[in-house]
Specification:
Elements lengths: L3 H11 L1 H7 L5 H9 L3 H12 L3 E2 H11 L10 H16 L5 E5 L2 E4 L2
Antiparallel strand pairs: 1-3, 2-3
Length: 111
């Protein structure tokens, strides 16, 4: 026969308590703000589509912040994170990727 502590552990492992916590409704303002925010990759794709010229990740981060598409959450090297994410998308999606590498360190929107 299972004790109450064993039942609690089993429920916790099954995710019952966390499911109850996450089921709470998010306030309407926060939900809308979360929907309207662009990710760094989405903002980079949008900016490259507008500019129609290859850019480095440092240029992308600066221009995205300037236009208000995306701002860094306070990391030391957001350009390195963006560079890595773009390369990862190119590697995983191949020809279906939104980005193309033109030369060392520069990316453009793929056609």
């Amino acid at each position: 026969m299972a004790t109450t502590t064993t039942k609690k552990r089993t429920a916790k492992r099954a995710g019952t308590k966390t499911a109850k916590k996450s089921a709470k409704a998010m306030p309407a303002k926060k939900a809308k703000a979360k929907r309207d925010k662009l990710s760094a990759l989405d903002a980079a794709a949008k900016l490259l589509a507008e500019r129609k010229e290859p850019m480095t990740s440092k240029e992308l981060v600066a221009a995205m912040a300037e236009k208000g598409y995306w701002k860094t959450p306070g990391g030391k090297t957001p350009h390195a994170t963006l560079y890595s994410a773009i390369l990862r998308e190119i590697a995983t999606k191949g020809r279906e990727s939104r980005f193309a590498k033109t030369e060392r360190g520069k990316f453009k929107i793929s056609a």
